[in-house]
Amino acid sequence: MAKLKIWRAGERSEALCERCRGWRDTEFQYRTVPLAASRKRVDDVLVGVCLACDGIASIPQQSAARLRAIAAAAGA
Questions:
Q1: The domain at 12-74 falls in which architecture?
Q2: 50 neighbors 13 (Cβ within 8 angstroms)
């Protein structure tokens, strides 16, 4: 079984940035994330932030589980 990396704020990585349309360097930071299927916003979510455009480029697995649970509770 493969080990999953647990990311921490301040760590750096790379991700495919949808806004920049290319691979960019990222830094993990806590941000407010809007849920796509509703108007709900979730505070203090660890995400990979594109260093070129300052947009959210990735969501690590430890944050994805929390977002899924909140979206399900909101009926999104």
A1: Roll (3.10)
A2: no
Q: Residue 28: its pLDDT value, please?
A: 98
Of the candidates 48, 45, 24, the residue with the CA atom closest to the CA atom of residue 34: 45
Residue 29 bridge partners (DSSP): 47
Closest by CA to 17, choosing from 67, 53, 60, is 53
pTM assigned to the model: 0.87
Residue 1 has pLDDT above 90, yes or no: no
Q: How far apart are CA 11 and CA 76, in angstroms?
A: 30
- Mean residue pLDDT of the chain comes to 92
